[in-house]
Amino acid sequence: MKILLVFDFDNTIIDDNSDTWIIQCAPEKKLPIELQNSYKKGFWTEFMGRVFKYLGDRGVREDEMKRAVTSMPFTLGMVELLNFIRRNKDKFDCIIISDSNSVFIDWVLEATSFHDVFDKVFTNPAAFDSNGHLTVENYHAHSCNRCPKNLCKNVVLVEFVDKQLQQGIDYTRIVYIGDGGNDVCPVTFLKKNDVAMPRKGYTLQKTLSRMSQNLEPMESSVIVWSSGVEIISYLQFLINE
């Protein structure tokens, strides 16, 4: 009987946003105004496709992007948390659901040797094409009107849990660790035994706190964190229950 840990990536595992971090590779470390202004709400992945094309056209190569991405700092206490999970893999399954992309997440997990901690990574598929340009696609199509067009994290989570159940794996609870606006949807579908862990001071925590003030119903308990070390303490409490 395992606990399922669900992680966001940007501003949760790493202490920045990988998509905005990569802009430091651009000439003068900024994007042209018309490219900046081309973003439409809900269509971030398409926007990043244009950013990657711009970087490629300006001669930014894979190794340069990889150096930048792997220099992103981990969030405070996150290395300790991932090591703790590794030591207790008999008690936890661990997945990432992220609106970043598969290339960036692979680079970070490989550079830090944390691939083995995660059983599955759900994110927008990315690859370098024959011109050496990074291309990114939408993770899936869905009909949820609360989420960006390319990814509803709740759909991903529900499908994963159902699939595991078919394999005979039934989780005692889900602990969801995230920070952003696109983590609100999966968190509001968590059940009574589950735990939402929003990062203090970020969009998810602010939204959940507003929801509780408006008395909007939420089944799961909410535990706020600032450091991965606080998450370790809580997980220790859960496995010693």
TrEMBL record:
Positions that bind Mg(2+): D8, D10, D179
Active site residues of this protein: D8 (nucleophile), D10 (proton donor)
Pfam families, per the entry: Put_Phosphatase
CC cofactor: Mg(2+)
UniProtKB keywords: Hydrolase, Magnesium, Metal-binding
Gene3D superfamilies attached to this UniProt entry: HAD superfamily/HAD-like
Cell membrane keyword on record: no
GO molecular function: metal ion binding; phosphatase activity
Binding positions for substrate per the UniProt entry: D19, D99
PANTHER family in the cross-refs: PHOSPHATASE, ORPHAN 1, 2, PYRIDOXAL PHOSPHATE PHOSPHATASE PHOSPHO2
Family statement: Belongs to the HAD-like hydrolase superfamily. PHOSPHO family.
Protein name: Phosphatase, orphan 2
Organism: Canis lupus dingo
Recorded name of the encoding gene: PHOSPHO2
